[in-house]
User: Fold alkaline phosphatase from Drosophila simulans.
Amino acid sequence: MAHHDTFAKRSLEDTAEFARAVQKARELTSEDDTLIVVTADHAHVMSINGYPYRDQEITGLAQLADDNLPYTILSYANGPGYYSGYNRAEGRALLKEKLVADSDYQYPTLAPLDAETHGGDDVAVYASGPYAQYFSGNYEQSNIPAMMAKAAGIGPYA
Assistant:
């Protein structure tokens, strides 16, 4: 849910926590008899901008733009973060590393909305265990539950 508030740092923390949860599930089960499927139901409109250095913190600031002001490496196409990077009186805000280091910082957006929207990107599907071979490539979102039912031998696949 952090993406909807354009809390990019929190969204990355959520992703890391989710990875730990998947790892714990793998530790508690056997790949011989447990199918684990990991996917998302939609993408978001966050993007990685510019040319950050390899050792640069992804939640930090990129180089200077043409107006000699820094911009965030991460930003959103729309959402409530519009006014954290822009104001009508001064234009683009002078962003500081200390500001963007805060987990409550709302990353800048191009268009102001009450909440960030979903994106139209394909989402990845990862699987391990029995029938994991069913889950490779791109799928219509509604096919994934059907493939899980087939792997489990339930519903119309019983």
